[in-house]
Specification:
The chain has helices at about 25-35, 70, 95-105, 130-140, 160-175; strands at about 15-20, 45-55, 55-65, 85-90, 115-120, 150-155. With about 180 residues, the protein is of the alpha/beta class. It has a 6-stranded mixed sheet with strand order 2-3-1-4-5-6, with helices on both faces. The two termini are about 15 Å apart. GTPase that recruits MYO1E to MHC class II-containing vesicles via the effector protein ARL14EP and hence controls the movement of these vesicles along the actin cytoskeleton in dendritic cells.
Length: about 180
């Protein structure tokens, strides 16, 4: 991983964090930024933060609200993004179909046609959370043949897997 993703005089690559409401996007971003769990409330609009992942590796992450009425605006956050991170609530099987529809709609946007995708299955610390295979199948990720994508499990609550997931996002961007 020792290679530099961006030069110090450049802005870090822009990554969009999306997913249904309640998936844990804001908790995830605050855990990465501050190293601890913060009390959060539903995002109206967006949150933004720069993550220093390692020496020479940073990402600017836009966390976009996931409520139904916000999803119609998701496309406006996609211009110039270098990666899409889609967060799924790994505990909520009842909304996986809704998540699949939302993700498919975003992936059809012309502005992100070749942008890599990272799917994070959040709440891995919760008993009976979905497996990566289960989520991958339900979201039909293997059909994304013209896009680099990965799926990883994580826990915004405990921090499990977050650093590695975003280092993987940085590697996906670098491959482009």
């Amino acid at each position: 991983m020792g290679q530099i993703l961006f030069k110090s005089n450049q802005k870090p690559p822009y990554v969009v964090l999306m997913g249904l409401d309640g998936a844990g996007k804001t908790t995830l971003l605050s855990r990465l930024q501050w190293g601890k769990r913060m009390d959060t409330s539903p995002t109206v609009g967006f949150n933004v933060g720069t993550l220093e992942l390692a020496r020479g590796i940073a990402l600017t992450v836009w966390d976009v609200g996931g409520q139904g009425e916000m999803r119609t605006n998701w496309k406006y956050y996609l211009d110039d993004c270098k990666a899409l991170v889609f967060v799924v609530d790994g505990e909520d099987r009842s909304r996986l179909g809704e998540a699949q529809k939302a993700l498919k709609k975003v992936l059809k946007e012309e502005s992100i046609k070749k942008v890599p995708l990272m799917v994070l299955v959040n709440k891995k610390d919760v008993p009976n959370s979905m497996t990566i295979r289960e989520v991958s199948t339900q979201l039909d990720l293997p059909s994304n043949k013209d896009r680099d994508w990965e799926i990883q499990a994580c826990s915004a609550y405990t921090g499990l897997g977050l650093q590695q997931a975003f280092l993987s996002v940085a590697q996906l961007i670098k491959k482009q």
